[in-house]
Design brief:
Length: 278
Amino acid sequence: MNKSPFRRLLHALVTDRFVWFLVIGLLLFGLDRWRQDADDYHIIVDLPLLEKLAAQWQGQTQRLPDANELDALVEGYVREEILVREARRLNLDQDDVIIRRRLAQKYEFFLADADVPIEPAADTLDAFFEINRARYRLPETFSFNHVFFDNENEARAAVTQLNADETDWRSLGLPFMLNRSYRTVTAERLAVEMGDAFVAALRTAPEARWSGPVASAFGVHAVKLVARDAGGDVAFDDVVARVARDWQIYQQTAARDSGMNELRAKYKVELAPVDPLP
């Protein structure tokens, strides 16, 4: 008895190895997708996660969490994980500027931490200090009081009066928008606020006496120099901790830049043609 065309087609499909291979492949693919979907709704709270949450808490509070606090940390993690997965399911992480920048920043941290020793050798730090000695120079600083006037004659008369009796020095002169008294202010900052001429005059002013008139960017002043520190070089041992931090930052920056250059070399950037505006 002759088979119908449908039966012959069905028999051919059943006996064809390729068809079976395709069917098995589809079944495996479907099973894998089903497992992935199931995993998307499966959150595992294991020991490494608990240790990580406890370490983060300890870093912020300087103590380990108790049982109730750990429960709250786990619940917070679970809530965050659910929201993140649902956001990804809706593709909310796509084309988001903040997420893009955060990912780029995290990868920069990854590049910066690559193979950078935590504690460099003493001679390495010493060499770094010598190369960058100017960075560690102490700045020139001034401590002084001053009274502001709108003309030199008044300032000159005030200097004589104040050297005789400075009890009410704050009540003299005109109101001043900045400080009347400065302590350990750097020459650089003072030059910005009061002008280079004012700083130059302070360098030659007598200590512990009122002098003036001293010109500034605002007008003239009667000034009492309390102290001046010329600054200058410091000993390596006095700044070794700062040198170590700066060396670490330098190495991380160098590692990040080197890693970025290697990554950049792998990519081809092509500028698409732009049609001219009509």
